[in-house]
Amino acid sequence: MSDKKEKQAIGLSYDGFNAPKVIARGFDELAEEIIAVAKEHGVLVHEDPLLSDSLAKLNVGDEIPRELYIIIAEIIAFAYLLDGKFPRQWEEG
């Protein structure tokens, strides 16, 4: 039995209104493909084994659970800032 942990990737989509949903989920080789496609399309890839383990329990189409809202919101906000996107209120100041 191997102690090597399988690679996993979970892709989320957020429409700005509803809770983020799982849009892709894969392990090992499929995880590598999901990560490669995300990077090719300029999607932020965030590596967090504990978060990944929690999200891996979900199926494609599932919304993230409430207990993950804050961490996912922080990651989405960080991705927006990296993209140069800011809340409208910041620009109106």
From TrEMBL:
GO terms, biological process: protein secretion
One Pfam family per UniProt: Bac_export_2
Keywords: Bacterial flagellum protein export, Protein transport, Transport
SUPFAM superfamilies on file: EscU C-terminal domain-like (SSF160544)
Cellular component GO terms, alphabetical: plasma membrane
Function: Required for formation of the rod structure in the basal body of the flagellar apparatus. Together with FliI and FliH, may constitute the export apparatus of flagellin.
Family classification: Belongs to the type III secretion exporter family.
PANTHER family: FLAGELLAR BIOSYNTHETIC PROTEIN FLHB
Protein name in the entry: Flagellar biosynthetic protein FlhB
Organism of origin: Idiomarina loihiensis (strain ATCC BAA-735 / DSM 15497 / L2-TR)
